[in-house]
Amino acid sequence: MKPVRVLIIDDSATMRRIIGFALASNPAIQVVGEAPDPTEAFKLVDSLDPDVITLDIEMPKMNGIDFLRRVMKHRPRPVIMVSTLTVNGAAVTIEALALGAFDCVAKPSLKDDRSFEDLIEKVIAAGAVRNRSSAALGRPAPTREPAAPSMPAPSMAAGPLERLIAIGASTGGVEALIAVLSEFPMDCPPTVVTQHMPANFTRSFAERLDRLCRPTVQEAEDRRPLQRGNIYIAPGGGRHMEVVRGAGSLETRLREGDTVSGHRPSVDVLMNSVAAAAGRDSVGIILTGMGRDGAQGLLKMRQNGARTIGQDEMSSLIYGMPRVAHEVGAVQKQLPLSRIAREIFTGARSTKEGTVSCHS
Fold this sequence. Notes:
By secondary structure, the chain is an alpha/beta fold. It has helices at residues 13-24, 38-48, 64-74, 87-98, 113-132, 173-181, 202-212, 267-277, 295-303, 321-327, 337-346; strands spanning 4-9, 29-35, 52-55, 79-83, 103-106, 164-169, 191-195, 216-219, 230-233, 240-245, 250-255, 282-286, 307-311, 333-335, 357-358.
């Protein structure tokens, strides 16, 4: 395997050295260039043709968002946003992810070894995506598939029979969730979402989704009763989100705990709780992401009678989480991203448990 060739863009010489040192420590990565600003970076993209770009957001001459928009249009490739992860920077980083950035990571810190590991892991994953298909980069995931003229927009009148929807996603999930949730009707069943995302980002992400979706989208709070027409996003980076039976209704719980399947919040934790609290009255969906988080939780949901759906390989930015879920038998139907929302609201529950239907 050839090493992943990386271009580092950051206006701080110190940060370029820190990022370069972190990446060069792994033999699977080769740093081929550095740039202090987008103007110089454009020249290096043309001359070096890097596999992956790490990109700061706030830079002189042109900000990272404008650079990202241009490079995705003219020379698309995986771009990893390297951010200070402040509250003020969260909204713009979410915008970058929606424009097609591969992922975001915290700027490496000598005080936090994990920040180096995150950056290395995501650069290698991004390089694998570039090698697999450059054609899929440079545009957000498709947001909707035109419906047949005779098919009305989904609503509670058409389904689902279930009263709770659980969704898990990771790398590429920003675009995927926008695509799926923007198709939800205003009166959808309560929907809980765990998207792997750093702390301080999920509130901005929920606010962005709320502007794009018919239902109300909000960052989840502890002991919040789940209500129809609402979508709840697990807060990033600190606590697990679960669904439990409260006094007469289902409600969210946010709790401390060790990482599960490498994450906190974890999709497995959410879906295991939904399996116990709602069983066959729920639908589980696993979207694009790196790793295996969610596979066992989705399997538990299926074993308890829930309908389960997985995003297919062709429409996934990273076919990791959906692949593992499919391999362990957790997925009843594999579907392209553009068909998942319609399946949730118009798909019939299988009358023969154990039947697996795959679509491409």
